[in-house]
Structure formats: structure tokens, C-alpha cells
Amino acid sequence: MMMSQTGVLMPFALCNTTGCIVGIDEVDRGNQCNCRCLSCSTPVTARQGESNQNHFAHRTDEASTVNECHYSPLTALALILRQELPTILALQVDGCIYEGLKWSVDTKAFGVVIDVFGIAACESTIAIEVPFANGVGLCIEELKPHVDAILSVNTNAMVQALYPREQKSISLSPNDIIELLLENWADWVSVIKVPVMKENISSSPQTDTEYKGSINSHLVQFSSDETPSQILCRCCNIRSGIRAGGLLCNECVFKNVGHRFPNLTEMARYYRDK
Ligand SMILES: [Zn+2]
Ligand SMILES: [Zn+2]
Hints:
By secondary structure, the chain is of the alpha+beta class.
């Protein structure tokens, strides 16, 4: 059985067709998967339905197979988060709501390369550190004066929780991973720089409804009298919908995905058809 150099099975690979990272259960079997290794770019084959856990393996029949591959679960996770964090449209950091987020990845700003960088509709900025290895992260001190909020994802803790050694781990798709991160946000994300509340955010008519997406009760109360036209989450009918195209709130997604529904898509479908 082929493994990466470090002896770990590879549950993810890069799809040649879409350029996206995919999970082993999302692809066709064998060479039909049309994927390459996340780390060394060698074409891989999808090993499914064998006695072992489903995984990708380097294709040894390919002339381009390299001798050295540094694939690790941490590498995969850091890449997946770079792909999936930019799908988040709204984020709450310490009571501040960032809505209409536009993201860039590994982007240079303020003289620093920022792992994941978000600019909200109100022009507030968030830098998120997503380290590939222990102790290698952003130059936080240099960034502090320039961005409103700085977060750090503990990729190492995520790997330990999601891919425990000596244990068969469940197959996760990149989408599952971002859902798990949102679910365990407090455990896996630390706030390095707390945003300062901006007066103009709450007074702007454009962002009034956006404030109601907050799971912070203080903020929900603050705006509930003034904007009755908001779109409520179809699950709880209390908070505003900011996930699944405005259909659901974060809290209901956290509570139900993985329990009542296998994933966000299924949950959205259920409430859309309801
Ligand atoms: Zn490789
Ligand atoms: Zn809800």
C-alpha cells in the first residue's frame, strides 16, 4: 500500500478538473478520480472499498512520481481552510459583525503575507492565521496597527482532533471541515486582536439588518425594533438567516448539521422546500 512519505493515508487530493481540494468519498474510484497529490502534485489514484480506510495513493505508474512527498494532515488542513474559509459570508468576532466578506488567500498587504484576509462590506478587515506548521504564522505585531481583527486557527489542535493517530478516522469533505470549524470555533480559533466597535457600522442603514444575524443577544435586541423586514432563519424564526443563501442562522446550522442533517446542503434543501 502506497502512503505518503510520512506514513499517513491521504484523505484529500486536488481535483484536476475543478482545481479544488476534494475528499476521498467525493471522487470516482481509481485513476478515474483525476486528482493529484496536494503536496507533491503527483497524480493519485482513489482507493475505495478495500479493507483499509478509503484513501488516495500516489500513482506509481506515472513517470512524474517524485521521490519525496511531504504530505501531512496539517498541510492538507491548512490548504483546505484556505479554500473553505473564503466561503464564509458573515462572521462575528467579539460582538462585531463582519458581513458581505470578500476574501483573499496568501495575499500580501501591509508588507506581510496574510494567510486568509477578509474585507467586510463596511470596510472592516480581518486577518486569519492558518499555520502549515507549529509556530510558523503571521507577523502579528506588524499587522496589528493595520487590520481591525486578527484571528488564529489552531490547525495543530484540529488535526489532533480530526485525525487521531492509530485510529481509523471518519471521511470528511472540505465542506465538512469548515462546518466542524464553525461548530468548534471557540476551541480552535483564538482572537489575537479584538476589533473595536465602530459607531458607523450600526448607524448605516445598509447594515441594520445584518446586525440581526448576530448570535449576541445584546445586538439582536439593539436592532429588532427598527427593521422588521429582515429575513428570519426558517429553522428558529428568531435570528436572521446568514447561511445557505439567507435561509438559516449560524446557531441552527451548528445545532443541526451532523445530527438531524448530514450536511448543510441537506439542511438547506429541507427548509427551502418546507
Ligand atoms: Zn505527494
Ligand atoms: Zn435559526
